[in-house]
Amino acid sequence: MALPIVACAPGLGDPSRFEVDEVCDFDVQEDLLVPRCATAPACHVPHEPAAGLEFVTGGLAERLLRNEATTCDGHRLIDAASPSDSFILTRVSAEPACDGTPIERMPLVGEPLNARELACLTRWVESIAREAPPIDAPARDASTGDEDAGP
To answer: Which of 87, 29, 85 is nearest to 61 (CA)?
Structure first.
């Protein structure tokens, strides 16, 4: 005789229990940004960085935090106050826009980032934003660690 199931253990009805976090077992700069965004045709390279943004040299996280997007005024490349609004994430999203106006999706060459790459880039941006100094803290010179003397 079959017995009807009258209740489920707590949480079994929650479909998110099947979601597995993406494994980000690679270096975002070296294994994602450089090969996808700084290769032929060379876009974000040191000698001629597209939109003034290069991904090859050290100090990338600090540059992304410190600088605004040159292709969308008023938007931070990494927004420490709101990481999900970081322009670097907007630019690789399925439908990138600058203040409501559609713009080109990055990377321009090759396939768009896949779900795993997007998830790992998002985590990387969030971790940089979490570790960012408060906005009112003096900027530090990345090469020496000294506080910037100001303008």
So the answer is: 29
Say what the pTM is: 0.74
Q: What is the pLDDT of residues 18-45, one digit of tens each?
A: 344 668 999 999 999 999 999 867 799 9
**In a domain? residue 81:** yes
Which residues are registered as beta bridge partners of 101?
Answer: 98
Q: Which domain holds residue 60?
A: 24-131
Would residue 11 count as lying in a domain? no
User: Contact, 44 vs 54, CB < 8 A?
Assistant: yes
Question: Considering the domain boundaries, does residue 15 fall inside one?
Answer: no
Is residue 135 over pLDDT 90? no
The reply to whether 104 falls in a domain is yes
Domain count along the chain:
1
Token pair of 95 as six digits:
């439908």
Phi, psi of 97, rounded to the nearest 5 degrees: -150, 155
